[in-house]
Amino acid sequence: MANTLIMENAKIRFRNFSGRPDEFTREGDRSFALVIDDEDLANKLKEDGWNVRMRMPKNDGEDPWYYLKVKVNFGGFPPKIIEVTSRNRVSLNEETVGILDSAELKSVDVEISPYHWEIGGRSGITAYLKTMYATIEEDPFAAKYELTDF
């Protein structure tokens, strides 16, 4: 049985925290791809039942890379998502988490919960975000023009 997956300084791609529809996603489905840099770890996770996928490079000379699609669900057990800046830590919720789609991320620490499923003789693990601390790369004027209470 798989335990939670914890990654510090994680790389994430294909961010859709807002749940916007596109050719791969239904409206309201929030997710991101957690990059797995270590091929041995990717293979171990796959053996354990996690849905790790390999993405082929677009350019010659680049290596393929592995990733895990992580769902962000605010249903029964909503994730703890914290936006971190040099001045503040803000808890994001279902209405505000979409700002991470376009934020320049300096670092991301995540805890991913496994959900074991079995349907029609098939089984696997769906990855759900449990905890995320996203440190934002601030622009050079952020501190100078910091808003204060009115």
What can you tell me about this protein's structure?
It contains one helix and nine strands; from the N terminus they run E-E-E-H-E-E-E-E-E-E. The protein has 150 residues and is mostly beta strands. The longest helix has 10 residues, at 39-48. It has one helix at 39-48, and strands spanning 5-7, 12-16, 31-36, 52-55, 65-71, 80-84, 89-92, 105-119, 122-136. The chain is globular. Strands 1, 2, 3, 4, 5, 6, 7, 8 and 9 form a nine-stranded mixed beta sheet that branches. Strand 8 (105-119) and strand 9 form a beta hairpin.
Describe the global form.
globular
Q: Count every beta strand, where a strand is a DSSP E run of 2 or more residues.
A: 9
Average pLDDT, all residues:
91
Q: Secondary-structure element order, as H and E?
A: EEEHEEEEEE
Distance between the termini: 52 Å
Keywords:
globular; nine-stranded mixed β-sheet; about 150 residues; about 45% strand; 1 helix; mainly beta
Strand and helix layout:
Layout: E1 5-7, E2 12-16, E3 31-36, H1 39-48, E4 52-55, E5 65-71, E6 80-84, E7 89-92, E8 105-119, E9 122-136
Parallel strand pairs: 5-9, 6-9
Antiparallel strand pairs: 1-8, 2-3, 3-5, 4-5, 6-7, 8-9
Provide a compact summary of the structure.
This protein is mostly beta strands.
